[in-house]
């Protein structure tokens, strides 16, 4: 898991590479995006692509800790990026990954939905200038 975050920092990959095609991703909270996405593709299409279309520069994570217990891996990290409107995006995330054979089969994501929603509503999505600003070059 740490290696996937290291690749994210350098722009050569991301933890999303570890998602099984059938992996579910649950965004906890009261954001309009808070719900369970039933597949990797649905999550990438409905959340990540639209997130990327709002970014000028890719998101860079700073890992505070990676913790494992049985088949569960918890990643606590800060994320920083620049939105298309030139303003910074800062948030703190905790992801809970259920693993099976080094692949993510279920994910739960916690973050400041107020900060996220303010950014999401402020910045209109545009054609991305970077292929995957959230995760890779």
Secondary structure layout plus pairing:
Blueprint: H1 2-10, E1 19-27, E2 36-37, H2 40-52, E3 55-69, E4 72-83, E5 88-100, E6 103-111, H3 113-122
Parallel strand pairs: 1-6
Antiparallel strand pairs: 1-2, 3-4, 4-5, 5-6
Describe this structure in words.
With 137 residues, the protein is α+β, with helices and mostly antiparallel strands. It has helices at residues 2-10, 40-52, 113-122, and strands spanning 19-27, 36-37, 55-69, 72-83, 88-100, 103-111. A hairpin with an 8-residue loop joins strand 1 (19-27) and strand 2 (36-37). It has three helices and six strands. The chain has a single domain, classed as Nuclear Transport Factor 2, Chain: A, CATH 3.10.450. Strands 2-1-6-5-4-3 form a six-stranded mixed beta sheet. Residues 129-133 have low confidence and may be disordered.
What's the main sheet like?
6 strands, mixed
Top-tier CATH class: Alpha Beta
| Fraction in beta strands | 35-45%
Spatially, the strands of the biggest sheet line up as 2-1-6-5-4-3
Counting DSSP H or I runs of 4 or more residues, the number of helices is 3
Q: pLDDT average, as an integer? A: 91
At CATH level 3, the topology is: Nuclear Transport Factor 2, Chain: A
Give the termini separation. Answer: 19 Å
Shape: globular
- Strand element count: 6
- Give the proportion of residues in helices: 10-25%
Q: What count of domains describes the coordinates?
A: 1
What is the chains' assembly state?
A: single chain
Order of SSEs? HEEHEEEEH
Name the structural class.
alpha+beta
- Give the radius of gyration: 14 Å
